[in-house]
Amino acid sequence: MPTMWLSETQSGLFLCLGVLMFFDRSMLAMGNILFLIGLTLIIGLQKTINFFSRRQKLKGTAAFASGIILILLRWPLTGFLIELYGIFILFGDFLITVGQFTGNIPVVGPYIKQVLETLAGGRRNVQLPV
């Protein structure tokens, strides 16, 4: 039986299409539910409610909730992108902490730290939510 060889372009195209196929509505909805349950179990119900209802986090909470609703309304890719924006707004304060931790990784650590600090946009010394 002859084998088929794919070019780099074809294999890249199939990889991208395969990743897009993972944006299944039910999987994303289940992941969102498990994410919220896990966050609640880690920091507690009251702190979770306080975290999502803070005044400076309302924009992120609205984007995250809108993303979940769009996923449930069968717009998984759009909902995921809006949800990703909301998560960045909600948990962007942790980027400095993650950057400091990854700065100790040999060879690539300083580069990762620099990228995360740039993405955080000067949010140094911000009160963390927990």
Describe this structure in words.
It is a multi-pass membrane protein. Keywords: Golgi apparatus, Membrane, Transmembrane, Transmembrane helix. The protein is an all-alpha fold and 130 residues long. The chain has a domain at 24-93. 71% of the residues lie in helices and 0% in strands. It is built from 7 helices and no strands. α4 (58-72) runs antiparallel to α5. It is flat and about 55 Å long. The model has no long low-confidence stretch (mean pLDDT 83).
- The helix content is over 70%
Rg, rounded, reads 19 Å
The N- to C-terminal Cα distance equals 60 Å
- Rough shape? flat
* Helical/strand content category: mainly alpha
Give a count of the beta strands, DSSP E runs of length 2 or more.
Answer: 0
Total helical segments: 7
Our estimate of the beta-strand percent is under 5%
Q: Which stretches are poorly predicted, pLDDT < 50 over at least 5 residues?
A: none
* Averaged pLDDT: 83
Q: Biggest β-sheet, characterized?
A: none
What order do the helices and strands follow?
Answer: HHHHHHH
